[in-house]
Write a structure and sequence with these properties.
The protein contains nine helices and ten strands. The chain is of the alpha+beta class. The protein is globular. Helix 1 (68-75) runs parallel beside helix 2 (98-113). The chain folds into two domains: 3-150, Ribosomal Protein S5, domain 2 (2-Layer Sandwich); 160-268, GHMP kinase, C-terminal domain (Alpha-Beta Plaits), CATH 3.30.70. Strand 8 (228-231) and strand 9 (238-241) form a beta hairpin. The mean pLDDT is 96.
Length: 270
């Protein structure tokens, strides 16, 4: 029987950038959360590893050897090959950890079928700073470059969430490079809900400078009944959290009417 796994969309409920490091990376503090929807991976046994990509955003992944799922296959030793079909539902370069989520889903497939090597966290981190969090796909604090994970009181599971992307790709590197370098302080303390309410995304300013339509997305989401609105990661996707599903659905319909070309995804936090 084929294996199937969802690559849950990652959002940063808060993202505080503390400093630039000498190695070119940035010290961050973030609150990772995951939506109960995302890309879809199906795996079948095969003589050797294979990767096929389908879905709405498949055309944006043109380098099969550079794809993070192919790299994850190479990073995980197994007795058998796997033929992977990746249905790409999440936009690329969107602040949703799409590639990292895909790799995380593959790690879970291997874990549940074969077992992961003892150093799986280091292998995941070499693929990308978000990958260790995406393997677990649970709400957690991330420090360092995002690979140092810490538990947090999660009182947001089941919260209705709306994701909106203006269909403009925004690579991470230029957004971090344009960060103004100001340390605005650490994450708030407390449960996930308090951090989501009181936190911020220190990359919003640089992302909007590079992709001004993000400001319009945020304005549309703030003109709803959402209790928290923010950009995720380095953008351009923004999210809104709601108290009730009906509020989310009303907001989604209103934004779809006003901006029919924007991408949307509805779900709940895991």
């Amino acid at each position: 029987m084929p294996l199937a796994e969802t690559a849950f969309a990652k959002i940063n409920l808060a993202l505080h950038v503390r400093r630039r490091r000498e190695d070119g990376y940035h010290e961050i503090e973030t609150l990772f959360a995951f939506v109960d929807a995302g890309d879809r991976l199906i795996a079948r046994p095969a003589p050797q590893d294979q990767l096929a990509i389908t879905g709405e955003f498949a055309g944006e992944l043109t380098d099969p050897f550079g794809n993070i799922v192919a790299k994850a296959l190479s990073a995980l030793p197994r007795a058998d090959g796997l033929a992977i079909t990746l249905e790409k539902k999440l936009p690329v370069a969107a602040g949703l950890g799409g590639g990292s989520a895909d790799a995380g889903a593959l790690f879970r497939m291997v874990r549940d079928t074969y077992a992961l090597p003892p150093d799986w966290q280091a292998r995941a981190a070499r693929l990308g700073a978000d990958v260790p969090a995406c393997v677990e796909s649970r709400t957690a604090l991330g420090r360092g470059t995002g690979t140092e994970l810490h538990p947090v009181e999660d009182d947001l599971a089941g919260t209705p969430v709306l994701l909106v992307n203006p269909r403009v790709p925004l690579p991470t590197g230029p957004v971090f490079a344009a960060w103004d370098g100001l340390d605005r302080g650490p994450l708030p303390t407390g449960p996930a809900s308090a951090i989501a309410r009181e936190g911020r995304n220190d990359l919003e300013g640089s992302a909007i400078a590079l992709c001004p339509v993000i400001a319009s997305v945020l304005a549309c989401l703030r003109d709803t009944n959402a209790w928290a609105v923010r950009m995720s990661g380095s953008g351009a996707t923004c999210f809104a959290l709601f108290a009730e599903e009906a509020q989310r659905e009303t907001a989604a319909a209103s934004i779809a009417f006003a901006e029919p070309n924007w991408w949307q995804m509805q779900g709940r936090l895991r």
